[in-house]
């Protein structure tokens, strides 16, 4: 299938809000190129620090490349994105430009591979692209990943915060469901920590296929059940842990169902929430009966760990 590549150039303050906008407009994949990344050293597959190529990044602000299938793309889309960004309340939009170009599926996959290298995502986990070799240190647990057209490499703040919370709250033998699994990275992390059984669901059939492939790469396909699913609709089996790295308005829709589907003292780990939606999500969690264990914050995003306590 061919895609339209939509390129957005804007200032850093807009980045936490862009995922909501693009998700509602039907984007299939997103690459964020941040001018600030050029000054940061990265660790390659052999433990050496390497410099990023400035030519791959904008001189200022951020460049967002997002992808729409030929079926989803409409001529009005660029104007829709522009208006949605310009209507953000209390967010300064000091720089904005948007354009579109045709792109082949294979070209898209090769494009983002230039930006995806091995990196330490948390205290425990190092994420390594499937096309790289990597010699792990004794204190590293490697997740090998080929995200394809699915979200979630661990490099984004929302995913890295989730991984850090998973390290703390997912224990051996605990049952897990990963809602909106994307690339499958959170399910793989849970498996490597000894969780079982694990179920991964996503509404997007492409994401389900990508997750299945990543489960195979990491040798855990036999231990993770994966299927298409609309949040927690139709789920009946109670779990010890529910993971959801989605977006705030979608998390909000599933809070009540998540509480019902957790065992007593079960943990809900969720992210994809911009800081402006923190009060809304925390209030709903507490109203549903959760006690907040901790809130992580990074780059305009939050992740929450909450426990179901039954009186």
TrEMBL record:
<comment type="function">
    <text>Methylates ribosomal protein L11.</text>
</comment>
<dbReference type="InterPro" id="IPR050078">
    <property type="entry name" value="Ribosomal_L11_MeTrfase_PrmA"/>
</dbReference>
<keyword id="KW-0687">Ribonucleoprotein</keyword>
<keyword id="KW-0949">S-adenosyl-L-methionine</keyword>
<comment type="similarity">
    <text>Belongs to the methyltransferase superfamily. PrmA family.</text>
</comment>
<dbReference type="Pfam" id="PF06325">
    <property type="entry name" value="PrmA"/>
</dbReference>
<keyword id="KW-0963">Cytoplasm</keyword>
<keyword id="KW-0489">Methyltransferase</keyword>
<dbReference type="GO" id="GO:0005840">
    <property type="term" value="C:ribosome"/>
</dbReference>
<dbReference type="InterPro" id="IPR029063">
    <property type="entry name" value="SAM-dependent_MTases_sf"/>
</dbReference>
<feature type="binding site">
    <location>
        <position position="202"/>
    </location>
    <ligand>
        <name>S-adenosyl-L-methionine</name>
    </ligand>
</feature>
<feature type="binding site">
    <location>
        <position position="159"/>
    </location>
    <ligand>
        <name>S-adenosyl-L-methionine</name>
    </ligand>
</feature>
<dbReference type="GO" id="GO:0008168">
    <property type="term" value="F:methyltransferase activity"/>
</dbReference>
<feature type="binding site">
    <location>
        <position position="245"/>
    </location>
    <ligand>
        <name>S-adenosyl-L-methionine</name>
    </ligand>
</feature>
<dbReference type="InterPro" id="IPR004498">
    <property type="entry name" value="Ribosomal_PrmA_MeTrfase"/>
</dbReference>
<protein>
    <recommendedName>
        <fullName>Ribosomal protein L11 methyltransferase</fullName>
        <ecNumber>2.1.1.-</ecNumber>
    </recommendedName>
</protein>
<dbReference type="GO" id="GO:0032259">
    <property type="term" value="P:methylation"/>
</dbReference>
<keyword id="KW-0808">Transferase</keyword>
<keyword id="KW-0689">Ribosomal protein</keyword>
<feature type="binding site">
    <location>
        <position position="180"/>
    </location>
    <ligand>
        <name>S-adenosyl-L-methionine</name>
    </ligand>
</feature>
